[in-house]
Amino acid sequence: MTETFTLAHFSDVHMSPISGFGWRYWNVKRVLGYLNWQYKRRHVHFTTVADRLIADAHALRPDHIAITGDLVNLGLPAEHDAALAWLRRVGSPDHVTVIPGNHDIYSSMRGDRGVARWAAYMGSEEDTLAFPFVRRVGPLALVGLNSAVETPPFFASGLLGAHQLEIAQEQLLGLDEEGAIRVVLIHHPPLADMTASRRRLKDAAHFAHLLERTGAELVLYGHNHIPAVDWLPSRGKPVPLIAAASASAGTAYGKEPLARYNLFTFFRNPSGLRIRHVVRGLETPDGPVTKISENFLETDD
Predict the structure, then answer these.
(1) Domain tally for the chain?
(2) CATH number of the domain where residue 239 is located
């Protein structure tokens, strides 16, 4: 008998408009980020576009939805509140999992609880968060990592840190022994050569070595706004590394396409696991959400 489970993957929503301009949260980085929004990003990212993709996913009734960060732009409290309201429209916490991106943890919050507002969507009932976390959804074990750290102006790099890496290794090895389908969620690209140095995961080499030791059935990320499929050798089967485009891109920008999301169907039976990967999104700004591509990620020997 074949067990099936579907997972939709969204990333980089960059909700608009920006609001909540209290003076106490402003600094050089946020001023520069706001100027970037005014002169570039507001002409690219539209929450209405993300809502169209979410509506398409809802029509397909996935078993769960994962969002790999950058729900907002400047990490302001009002943005976090608006993102929480948006998450509630996407689905309930038992149906949606989110991790933060660098725009969500952007700069100093001076004691504000920040992304802890979304704690219920990160497997916690409290305002305090702990990473990495594990959420069990059907046959899947979602391992949520936080690569987002405060950075100086002109930098968008990430860091997991030794503690997160140590705990993640224990979790992934234990979940493998249990026979869970392990899906790792991270915002930054997992390999160092996937983006420019000022934007990359600083401990990407350590993270890659971890995945080589533990393996994983799937790694999902965002950050670059460019869809990609790569493979990382591991102790057993190669690990598929799948990037999502921005879910809110109403205008193509450079190499960044119009809005897209990933839809995975996991088929597991006694002979092994197969993962079907469908990309859905816009082919024209005013057109319908359609299937862009479809293939299978073969993870069995």
Answers:
(1) 1
(2) 3.60.21.10
d(CA 233, CA 37): 38
Print the domain residue range for 186: 3-298
Residues 6+ apart with CB under 8 A from 192: 200, 201, 204, 205, 208
Could you tell me the two tokens for 187?
A: 């915002």
The model's pLDDT over 253-301, given as tens digits with 9 standing for 90+, comes to 999 999 999 999 999 988 889 999 999 999 999 999 999 999 999 754 4
Run of H or E including 176: helix 161-178
| pLDDT tens column, 202-221 | 999 999 999 999 999 999 99
Do residues 143 and 172 lie in contact, with contact meaning Cβ atoms separated by under 8 Å? yes
pTM above 0.85, yes or no: yes
Residue 46 identity (one-letter amino acid): F
Instruction: Decide: 37 and 103 in contact? Cβ < 8 Å.
Output: no
| Tokens 């405060």 sit on residue | 150
- Residue-wise over 119-157: b if at least 16 C-beta within 10 A, else e? bbbbbeeeeebebbbbbebebbbbbbbbbbeebeeeebb
Q: Which residues contact 157 (CB under 8 A, 6 or more apart)?
A: 102, 149, 151, 188, 197, 198, 199, 200, 201, 202
Rounded Cα–Cα distance for residues 201 and 217 (Å): 21
Residue 174 near residue 143 (C-beta atoms within 8 A): no
Distance CA 222, CA 69 (A): 7
